[in-house]
Amino acid sequence: MAENLDGKTALVTGGGSGIGRAASLAYANSGARVVVTDVNIEGGEETVQMIKESGGEAILVHADVSRPTDTEAMVSQAVKVFGSLDYAFNNAGIGGGRDRHLTADYLEEDWDRVMAINLKGVWLCMKAEIPQMLKQGKGAIVNTASIAGLVGLSGTVAYVAAKHGVAGLTKAAAMEYAKSGIRVNAVCPGYIETPLIEGVFDQVEGYKETLESRHPLGRLGQPDEIASAVLWLSSDAASFVTGHNMTVDGGYVAQ
Fold first, then answer.
1. What would the pLDDT profile of 4-34 be if each residue is shown by its tens digit?
2. 80 — alpha (psi -120 to 50), left (phi > 0) or beta?
3. How far apart are CA 184 and CA 70, in angstroms?
4. Active-site pick, 159, 177, 191, 252
5. pLDDT tens for residues 67-95?
6. Based on C-alpha coordinates, what's the Rg of the chain?
7. Does residue 97 surpass a pLDDT of 70?
8. pTM to 2 decimals?
9. Hey, which of 58, 120, 191, 225 would disulfide with 51, CB 3.0 to 4.6 Å?
């Protein structure tokens, strides 16, 4: 059953492509007004246009989640334009670096960049979102973690460490604000067919088939499948769910 989010406002970081775009469209199709944020203005504009063409309401806010001035501005703009901030999907993220390196060989500059966006960025978003939700007495936050936040993966130590951090951050914040009407959960996707990963398919022969074989269901996930989980975790249908890191991974971590 489709959720009815009429009159609600949802903020999506990294909304210009992939999972973020799918979630933005899912929120809009359920009646929410959507604040799409991204460093990629062109992609963000395309998402906003897609929402408007389907009869929804959306605005674009250019935001780099590693900058506190940007995360504060995106929340301020959401409230200024739509009057509230009911849902936040902190999804913006990057991969693990230019090349795959083992821990002792990992580049410090790659480590710092991954941490700044994938972990600190989630914290900065929550730091900006939670005060507004406290004013309203209610809200729901969903963070993007990963199967890499639950198990170890070789060659991408910063990404694994950051996503484990997101999983822990989600649990800690959920405990802190449970009695204030704010729920905090995370989605932990398996390998999903997004631009982030599709760019590698043409470079590495057989890479897609290798990734598919790692999932018991024998395929990669689709952005819409993650968006459905995000929408449910945001909605009142999940009113008794907080502090949960939900796997949507084709059975990957069950092995």
1. 899 999 999 999 999 999 999 999 999 999 9
2. alpha
3. 21
4. 159
5. 999 999 999 999 999 999 999 999 999 98
6. 17
7. no
8. 0.96
9. 58
Residue 159 bears catalytic tag: yes
Structure confidence at residue 2 (pLDDT): 57
- Which two three-digit tokens encode residue 205? 């022969």
User: CA 116 to CA 124: how far, in whole Å?
Assistant: 10
Backbone angles phi, psi at 83, to 5 degrees: 90, -5
* Angstrom distance (rounded) from CA 26 to CA 28: 5
Residue ranges covered by each domain of the chain: 9-195+222-248
Q: How far apart are the first and last CA of the chain?
A: 31
- The DSSP string of 163-203 is HHHHHHHHHHHHHHHGGGTEEEEEEEE-SB-SHHHHHHHTT
Mean pLDDT on 119-148: 98
Say how far apart CA 125 and CA 68 lie, in whole Å. 8
> Looking at domain 9-195+222-248, which CATH architecture does it have?
3-Layer(aba) Sandwich (3.40)
Name the residue type at position 163.
K
